[in-house]
Amino acid sequence: FTLLAKALLPPPDKHRGLTDVETRYRQRYVDLEANERTREIFRIRHAAIHAIRNHLDGLGFTEVEGPVLQTIQGGASARPFVTHHNALDIDLYLRIALELHLKRLIVGGLERVFEIGRVFRNEGIDTRHNPEFTMLEAYQAFADYHDMMDLTEGLVSAAARAALGDTATVHYAGQAIDLTTPWPRARFADMIAEKTGATMHPDMPIAQARAVLDRLHIPYESSWGAGRLMKEVYDEKVQHDVVGPVFCIDYPREVSPLARVHRDDPAYVERFELIVAGFELCNAYSEQNDPAEQLAAFEAEARAKQGGDPEAGDVDHDYIRALEHGMPPTGGLGIGIDRLVMLL
User: Fold this and answer.
1) 168 pLDDT exceeds 80?
2) 296: pLDDT strictly greater than 80
3) Torsion angle, alpha carbons of 245, 251, 257, 261, to 10
4) Among 240, 243, 327, 329, which has the highest number of CB atoms less than 10 A from its own CB?
């Protein structure tokens, strides 16, 4: 016999298995060794990501990798991690989104691009949030948010078939969720009205909007406009009760600085989120491609950051310069890979 490796610690009990949550999460190698279900989750994740890549490749998308260390906090509203680059003696951010560098590629003529990569947000931890997580973002020139809804249905369906076989139903948190497409599309304001009885609009008088939140016992900041107040009502009273899948469409302009103004109502933007089992699985827009409008939105964010908002971003002047070279009408989407795997 030739000794190839040593096992100095015993495996978990054969009959009781490994059930201690602390040990399972802090010593994942022991969890994998003892629990077949954990290895099955790894298989599901691999199958889902592989199917997503194949689906996008079949549609002519090019996979790229953007920078993780960035000079600008942008692409989303989140508190960033800050690190220091010794050679350049400057502070840098770990990216909170993939968005702005991918859209630079659209400007450069790569008309369909995507990235599956880690993003980092220096925020709380719970069963649906982690400081680092995997995001898919995809951008398509000469498309809008309707095209992105169709693309999302195809991607999620492909991932589900690869991971689970032909079944169209998944069970999550005691609910049977039918993933058969097409999925319904409901307007943001209509979902608020249906759940709370409140008719709200981003251009409504601010006093009336605050009165709705007072009636629902939802706290708010004095600086928030009616659109931001609507988002708070939706977050607190609507989303968590949605089983879905459903596309929630047409968000207030105030809470969507990177999205294009809605073609029918300038108080809204062409944005949707895919809601499944009470949580957001996908966020997508018809992208803002007007450099003047984008600069104004960035400047509003910068003012909010100066006012103490830790999630607000800075003005990305290079991105504005890219838009000034001309970005075609573009649809973009982001899917949280970890949440998709949770669902599957």
Assistant:
1) no
2) yes
3) 120
4) 327
Q: Which two tokens stand for residue 92?
A: 């840098």
Distances (CA, A) of 226 to 76, 142, 264: 20, 32, 19
Q: What is the pLDDT of residue 25?
A: 86
> In this predicted structure, what is the pLDDT of residue 54?
97
Residue 17 amino acid letter: G
pLDDT at 18 over 90: no
Per-residue pLDDT for 250 more than 80?
yes
In the chain, the amino acid numbered 37 is R
| pLDDT number for residue 305 | 79
HEC per residue, the chain: CCCCCCCCCCCCCCCCCCCCHHHHHHCHHHHHHHCHHHHHHHHHHHHHHHHHHHHHHHCCCEECCCCCEECCCCCCCCCCCEEEECCCCEEEEECCCCHHHHHHHHHCCCCEEEEEEEEECCCCCECCECCEEEEEEEEEECCCHHHHHHHHHHHHHHHHHHHHCCCCEEEECCEEEECCCCCCEEEHHHHHHHHHCCCCCCCCCHHHHHHHHHHCCCCCCCCCCHHHHHHHHHHHHCHHHCCCCEEEEEEEHHHCCCECECCCCCCEEEEEEEEECCEEEEEEEEECCCHHHHHHHHHHHHHHHHCCCCCCCCCCHHHHHHHHCCCCCEEEEEEEHHHHHHHC
- For residues 133-165, one letter each, b for 16 or more C-beta atoms within 10 angstroms of the residue's C-beta and e for the rest, the string is ebbbbbbbbebbbebbbebbbbbbbbbbbbbbe
pLDDT band at 15 (very low <50, low <70, confident <90, very high): confident
| pLDDT tens, position by position, 85-142 | 999 999 999 999 999 999 999 999 999 999 999 999 998 887 778 899 999 999 999 9
